[in-house]
Structure formats: C-alpha cells, structure tokens
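Many introductory courses stop at the sequence. We go one step further.
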Amino acid sequence: MVTKETISEIYNKPLLALITDARVIHQTNFPVDDIELCHLVSVKTGGCPEDCKYCSQSIYNKSPIKLNPLLPVSEIEEAVTKAKSHGVKRICLGAAYRTPNSSAIDKISQYIQIIKKHGLESCATLGSLNMEQAEQLKSAGLDYYNHNIDTSPEFYPEVITTRTFNDRIDTISNVANVGMKVCCGGIMGLGESRDDRVSFIHALYQLPAIPDSIPINMLVKVDGAKLNNTTPFDKNELVRMIATVRILFPKTRIRLSAGRNELSKLEQSLLFLSGANSIFFGDKLLTVENNEANSDLEMIKNLV
C-alpha cells in the first residue's frame, strides 16, 4: 500500500539519489530516446464559468484574451497536418467549458475523426463529463481524456470553488469506465506546500484508474488572473516531483507542460533525466506562450 508517508520518504530523498532511482525505473520501462511530442489546440477559447484562480479563460478573472467559438473543421485539419509533419504523435483538443453541450460533442467528434484519419492519438480536455458524454467521445474514437486534479485535495479549495475535487474524480471515473485512457496531472507554484505536493501525488495514485499520462505544469502568471502574487518555487521541487512520479508510475507518460518556457534547455534536460518523456510542442499552449517549436526540435535532437 502506498501511503502519503511512503511518498514523502521518496520525495525527500537526497536529490541525486532520487534522480538515480527514477532514472533506473525510467530506463527499465521506456527506450532512452523516447520523448513524445503532443500538440494542444485551443478549439474553443474563453468564457469558462469556472473560477480557477490561475486561468486566463475564467470569467472570474480579467485576462485580456480573445474569445473564440469552436473552430472550423478546416482549421483543425490544418493544425493536425502541420503538427504531424514535425513528428507529433498526439493531438489534444482543449475547450473552455464547465461541461460541453451536445452540439459541442458533435463538433469535437468531427475533430477526432480528422486526428484519427492522420493516424495520430487523440486527447481532449473539455471540462466535466457524465457517463453518456464519455461514451459519445469514446465512440467517436477519442483515445485519452485529460482532466487534471490540479493540486492536493487539501489545497484545492484555495484555487477553485465552482467545482469540487470530488467532481473531478467523478469525471475521471466516467472516462475510465467507458474504456478511455486517463490523462491527469496538476500545477506547481500555486502557493501549495511540499506536503501538498506529496498529497497531490497520493491523490493521483488513488484515482479510479492509473493515469496513462501525467502532465506536470508550472503556474504561468497571466494578466488579470488572481494568482499573480504567488512566490516562485524552487525548481528543484520540479525535479523532485518528476522523479517521484516516475518512481510511483513506472509505465506512465510524464509530460512537461505549461511554464516550460521559463526553463533553460539544461534544466529541461535534468527533468528528462529524472523521468519526464513528453512535452507539449508548439508555440502556444491554449492562451499562453510555449517554447519556440524549432528550439524544441533542436533540444530533442541533442538529447536523443
């Protein structure tokens, strides 16, 4: 049985020992040159009724973003074709909903068919899903559903109040029950403590299904959002997070996500050494800047 105490012992190991342990597990389960590229497309931007204090798309924040309805199918085709040409293996469709309506599900099902036509894996993050919605997306061919728990159950109410932590677990359960793969991670730098980070990992371990992908984000401070005054965290904590997650989830894809453009190539290399093996690829992550695409391709070429 994996307890918070067990996780804390791993997380708090001397850093070099922790990295070494994680590296051994990583090499046992993945080829050394396996770094997956995933591309995130914002198919519907802004107007979200959730009050996530970090998010530019929340109606409760005052971030200056352009509101966009669901994109035309032709734009999805163009984005998928371009991403595939760069070696992207998975396309994630992101839409700012509390929960998608039936017409949105129908349109997104068309997007999924385009992704599958090009032979890529499909993922979506659309907010909460009931069982019927999960079944519809599964029938459309969706491979993964992303629904992050964001942080520890204890710290969660400090960040979001319009949707409970258990609401998120319910969606993950619905996704798992229809046979879709679960993508679930969180955000570091929200003001959480190290104990919260340990509790977050424990919550991941207790999900209704083992996540096939775990995206680890760093808080990106966006204009107008309520979490702009948090204290920057020690980047060694990010190394500890990646390494501990790798040890506890040996076969899971661990993705470096938002905030990566604040890391040097050397810092990113250390995170790959510690167990990460995927990145979001492309100049934009929903509404925030990401690493420049050519720079990422150069970095990965040097690594593998």
